[in-house]
Amino acid sequence: MDLAEVVDDVVDALVTIDASRQPFKEFQPGVGPYGEPQLVKLIAAHLNRIPKYKGAACVRRSPDLLIPQEWAIEFKLARPFGDNNKEAENWSVNLLHPYPGNVSTIGDCYKLLKYEGPERGAVAVIGYEHTPPKIQLTPLIQSFEEIAKNVLGFKLSDRIEVGRDNLVHPVHQAVRVFAWELLDGPRNLQSES
């Protein structure tokens, strides 16, 4: 199964979670406020209801989501605004911190290089925006690609992007999922570790 197909299924899962109107903790109803571990668990449960996943999608510590014999996927969330409609502090750091051993998407690329399973590795960003966006996610996504590819030397596939509008949350009104297959890492990985 190709990554674009998985990303489309992940977005369908997010829309289903959103439509349930089940709030996360004390936040307003909708998918946007969910934390990454809780959200990935719900995504895996949704995927496992789709026959092609054979009930095998599972949540792990690393990678975040494993689809056996297919994909090892690390996820990050990008939310420029909190549940309270105030701009979040440091929300972009989850993508751009360019060092191994941290919790950024770039750190996830380093982790995937060390993953020893037969699955292909991918990183995915689940981002939320207002409709229309008050802060657009595209500059952050392009910055991630620039740093990952041209500063650090990761080889990533072309970007896959799937989005949906009309979510129930009053702040996280649209979801956009961006994903890249990790094709290769920097040649100087030994000096980076």
Secondary structure layout:
Elements: H1 3-19, H2 36-47, E1 58-59, E2 65-67, E3 71-78, H3 93-96, H4 105-114, E4 120-129, H5 138-151, E5 155-156, E6 160-164, E7 174-184, H6 189-192
Parallel strand pairs: 3-4
Antiparallel strand pairs: 1-2, 2-3, 4-7, 5-7, 6-7
Helix pairs in contact: 1-2
Question: What does this protein look like?
Answer:
The chain is an alpha+beta fold and 193 residues long. It has one domain. The protein has 6 helices and 7 strands, in the order ααβββααβαβββα. The protein has helices at residues 3-19, 36-47, 93-96, 105-114, 138-151, 189-192; strands spanning 58-59, 65-67, 71-78, 120-129, 155-156, 160-164, 174-184. Strands 1, 2, 3, 4, 5, 6 and 7 form a 7-stranded mixed sheet that branches. The longest helix has 17 residues, at 3-19. 37% of the residues are buried.
